[in-house]
Design a protein that fits this description.
The complex is a heterodimer of chains A (291) and B (307). Chain A is an alpha/beta fold. Helix content of chain A is 44%, strand content 16%. Chain B is an alpha/beta fold and 307 residues long. Chain B has 2 domains: 42 residues; 255 residues, 2-enoyl-CoA Hydratase, Chain A, domain 1 (Alpha-Beta Complex), CATH 3.90.226.10. Chain B has 14 helices and 8 strands. Chain B starts with a helix and ends in a 5-residue tail after the last helix. Classes of the chains: A alpha/beta (291), B alpha/beta (307).
Chain lengths: 291, 307
């Protein structure tokens, strides 16, 4: 009897091992992820459904959770009005950087996106605008050639159709794996925005957590109106780098949206409940005939 | 052997050369040939990390050396008219072949005291705002602008962040992209990250043969991707950051050849080569219709990374 029991147990173990080989690891984490999420600030668990109803804001402490591009589009724009452009554009490993192709494939599979930005046109209270929404789930929203190009095309689309432009920024910065080409996207997007702006069009930049590095030093900071989400990290260098340079620790609120507003670099902080109305009102004020 | 060690050996040999009395021509010539041979041995087939070290060498010529060699009547201007003066940007007006130009240069110091004053070439937001101010001034008076890039990156300090480093760099890119006057950029040693890019939105970019220009310093790159700063040499070899690499990618327009041992050894040759390029390009760019000039500058950046 005991031997049989041991045999069965062994079989079960082998079966489990075999299964583990076929099922990717992420499913293990994803199941609880889909039902509950833990708030990093207050430590409490919130059900995902509740979170969704509350615009991905913790009901207990008000902390903003990370949102995917799709969730953000759904939250801000008129239902069904989003029309995506350049959906299929995807990065290649042109530098032959070790491990980059695998990384791209992994993120594509995990997020269902082709790149770290989703672009297109959408309506907000019936008013059409060009939008680019970055997604930090895809390689920390880093900007490589494709992200720069897609954003440029969106700016040019807005330019040619005379649409107001809204960009939701969230990025760790330029994409290291693409080297100098990534860096040049800063110049490229800024140049496109300058043209767009010079012909009298409106650009609203919405800074969400985190907006740092090359993105903050280009299009994120060039909005006619700059709106930040509460608590978003906004800055150029990471906190660690600065602490190492100046050899002292920085205050908790350093580089937080509220701090950046205090220093005069964003116009306002809008929480997620009021963001849609704020954007809608601002766009209305820029599209209606003044007379 | 590291670049610093090589440089020391060459220095020693040159000291010996100097001690030889001029009448002893045979010994003098022999020593001279020996030095040339050593240089050839040391400075050919350099790998990318060697070039990074060469670019950072304290013996390398600095922005102020090029300014005084290229221009006459240089009047440095100070201040961003908002907050302060940043010594890491040396900028002002000067004459090039008699014609007034605006010079905006990132400058490292020559010794420790000078470097402390200039913050090792790391630019603060005030520096970028000063650059923008002088760029607009140049536009007003239709003066061509010559920028000189030599910085490890923008200064990552607390105050710099509080005063909007990112915004200042973004404004630089924004302003230079549509500035109604020709802009020529010369990367002389080190161009690191957005801090260097801010001054390199230009109609022509020249880069010295042993200069480097990259998205981030190899140290930063190594600490992000390999989580270990000491792997900088490995990172540098992986990063395509030399003049030859960038020329291939059409990021820069010209490579300025340097004498063996780098531009610290004999600046005259390098300056003459830069002059040749400026003499060719300045009249060409100033002769262009403004609309075409701006269109070409836009296209130059627009086509980088097009799918």
């Amino acid at each position: 009897m005991e031997t049989l029991f041991r045999k069965r147990k062994e079989q079960l173990e082998n079966f489990k091992k075999a299964i583990r080989r076929f099922v990717p690891e992420r499913t293990k984490r994803e199941i609880p992820d889909n039902i509950f999420k833990k708030c990093e600030k207050c430590g409490r668990s919130v059900s995902v459904r509740r979170l969704k109803e509350n615009n991905h804001v913790c009901p207990d402490c008000g902390r903003c959770f990370k949102m995917s591009a799709a969730e953000r589009i759904e939250m801000v724009f008129d239902a069904g009005s989003f029309y995506e452009t350049d959906r299929r554009m995807t990065s290649t490993n042109s530098e032959n950087f070790e491990g980059y192709s695998e990384k791209l494939a992994k993120y594509k599979k995990r997020t269902g996106l082709n790149e770290a930005v989703v672009c297109g046109t959408a309506k907000i209270d019936g008013r059409k605008c060009a939008v680019a929404v970055m997604d930090s789930n895809f390689m920390m929203g880093s900007m490589g050639a494709v992200v720069g190009e897609k954003i440029c095309r969106t700016i040019e689309l807005a330019h040619s159709k005379k649409l107001p432009l809204i960009i939701f920024c969230t990025s760790g910065g330029a994409r290291m794996q693409e080297g100098i080409i990534s860096l040049m996207q800063m110049a490229k997007t800024s140049a496109a925005l300058k043209r767009f702006s010079d012909s009298g069009n409106l650009y609203i930049s919405v800074l969400t957590h985190p907006t740092t590095g090359g993105v903050s030093a280009s299009f994120a900071m060039l909005g006619d109106i700059i709106i930040a989400e509460p608590g978003a990290l906004i800055g150029f260098a990471g906190k660690r780098v600065i602490e190492k340079t100046i050899n002292e620790s920085l205050p908790r609120e350093f580089q937080k949206a509220e701090f950046v507003m205090e220093k005069g670099f964003v116009d306002m902080i809008a929480d997620r409940d009021s963001l849609r109305k704020t954007l809608s009102d601002l766009i209305a004020m820029h599209t209606e005939d003044a007379g | 052997m590291t670049i610093a060690e090589k440089e020391n050996i060459i220095k020693e040999q040159q000291l010996i050369l100097r001690k030889i009395p001029p009448e002893d021509t045979r010994r003098y010539n022999r020593q001279k040939i020996k030095i040339e041979k050593l240089k050839k041995q040391f400075y050919t087939n350099l790998d990318r990390w060697d070039i990074v070290c060469l670019a950072r060498s304290p013996q390398r010529a600095k922005a102020q050396d090029y300014i005084s060699a290229l221009f006459s009547d240089f009047y440095p201007f100070c201040g961003d008219r908002c907050f302060g003066e940043d010594r890491s940007i040396t900028a002002g007006i000067a004459r090039y072949n008699g014609r007034p130009v605006t010079v905006i240069a990132q400058s490292k110091g020559t010794d420790l005291a000078d470097n402390l004053k200039k913050n090792f070439g790391m630019v603060s937001p005030e520096g970028y705002r000063k650059a923008i101010r002088l760029a607009k001034q140049a536009e007003k008076f239709s003066r061509p602008i010559i920028t000189i890039v030599d910085t490890p990156g923008a200064y990552p300090g607390k105050g710099a962040e509080e005063r909007g480093r990112a915004q200042a760099i973004a404004q630089c890119l924004y302003t230079f992209s549509n500035l109604k006057t020709p802009v020529i950029c010369i990367v002389i040693s080190e161009g690191g990250s957005g801090g260097a890019l801010a001054l390199s939105v230009a109609d022509r970019i020249y880069m010295l043969e042993n200069a480097v220009y990259s998205i981030l310093s190899p140290e930063g790159f190594a600490s992000i991707l390999y989580k270990d700063e000491t792997l900088a040499p490995k990172a540098a070899r992986q990063m395509k950051m030399t003049a030859a690499d960038l020329y291939q990618k059409h990021i820069i327009d010209e490579i300025v050849k340097e004498p063996l041992g780098g531009a610290g050894a004999n600046i005259d040759v390098t300056v003459r080569r830069i002059r040749n390029l400026l003499n060719r390009d300045l009249p060409l760019l100033t002769g262009k219709k403004m609309k075409n000039l701006l269109e070409e500058r836009y296209e130059k950046y627009r086509r980088i990374g097009v799918m």
